[in-house]
């Protein structure tokens, strides 16, 4: 996989990931639902890739939920989710912060027992290319 590039919403933080991702999990746990404000988090994982902050490293901060392993890295200016290197050297990259295409298909849904109830009937929900009028 070629190197991946990403940034935050406001553009203050830019980064590069050198190397390959080993897995791509869609996590439905309650912690991920809360910190994404959505049905699940979509994170890429690598034990071998390296993270290079191209700009804005001073705008990156993180939060660890007490008494858990749940950690989130984000831009302190706009709040966008950003990569983090966890204590055991695992690189976790939120898929949505990448500016390059993710060629790896999701590996699995995890914590599926915590899926939001409204997520069950998604096949029947209309789709629009833009915000409907």
UniProtKB/TrEMBL annotation:
The keyword Zinc applies. GO terms for molecular function: carbon-sulfur lyase activity; metal ion binding. Transmembrane segments: none annotated. It comes from the Bacteria. This is Aldehyde-activating protein. Belongs to the Gfa family. The lineage of its organism: Bacteria, Pseudomonadati, Pseudomonadota, Gammaproteobacteria, Oceanospirillales. Residues 4-119 form the CENP-V/GFA domain. Coiled coil: none annotated. InterPro entries: CENP-V/GFA (IPR006913), Mss4-like_sf (IPR011057). Keywords: Lyase, Metal-binding, Zinc.
């Amino acid at each position: 996989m070629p190197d991946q590039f990403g940034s935050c919403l406001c553009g203050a933080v830019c980064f590069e990931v050198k190397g390959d991702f080993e897995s791509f999990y869609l996590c439905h746990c309650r912690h991920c639902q809360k910190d994404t404000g959505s049905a699940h988090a979509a994170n890429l994982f690598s034990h071998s890739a390296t993270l290079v902050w191209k700009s804005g490293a001073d705008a990156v901060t993180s939060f660890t939920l007490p008494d858990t392993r749940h950690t989130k890295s984000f831009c302190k200016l706009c709040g966008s989710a950003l990569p983090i290197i966890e204590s055991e050297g695992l690189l976790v990259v939120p898929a949505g912060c990448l500016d390059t295409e993710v060629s790896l298909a999701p590996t699995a849904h995890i914590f599926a027992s915590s899926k939001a109830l409204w997520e069950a009937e998604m096949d029947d929900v209309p789709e629009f290319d833009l915000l409907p009028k």
